[in-house]
Design a protein that fits this description.
By secondary structure, this protein is mainly α. It is built from 4 helices and no strands.
Length: 142
């Protein structure tokens, strides 16, 4: 049996994008996420407020806290990467953020039926879902 040495041919030999392109796309997505979330949640919260004002407010509060959560996560990750901050401080900030933002649905739903909590959680995860759809679209189109 004869063995040949050499290198494997790459499956995809398109030139990769420069890191600056990825960073610019990241910051563009970061800037637009609040606007897109508002464009989706404000009409839905308005319709929900017609049924119950508290329901609309809970959805809006969930959306606002979802955008805040996502921006805080991104900023904390950026700090860790750019300044080489300690992982302990990174973990502490994330833990505090999770605890504070996890209390929001519980506090808002404390005086209302339990399913109001689901409305806050839906509003909370809407910005994250919109961000993931936008990222998936960018990745699939190249």
């Amino acid at each position: 049996m004869k063995v040949e040495q050499g290198r494997f041919a790459a499956d995809d030999n398109r030139p990769s994008a420069e890191p600056g392109d990825h960073v610019r796309a990241y910051f563009a997505r970061k800037r637009i996420v609040g606007i897109r979330s508002a464009l989706v949640l404000v009409p839905i919260a308005g319709c929900a407020a017609m049924l119950s004002p508290q329901l609309g407010l809970d959805l809006a509060a969930g959306g606002i806290s979802g955008v805040a959560n996502m921006l805080l996560v991104m900023r904390n990750n950026e700090r860790l990467l750019e300044r080489g901050r300690s992982r302990g401080a990174y973990g502490l900030r994330n833990t505090v953020r999770i605890v504070v933002l996890s209390l929001l649905p519980v506090v808002l739903a404390a005086r209302h039926p339990w399913w109001f909590m689901l409305v806050v959680i839906a509003g909370f995860f809407t910005p994250l879902a919109l961000y993931s759809f936008e990222f998936q679209r960018e990745v699939s189109t190249g």
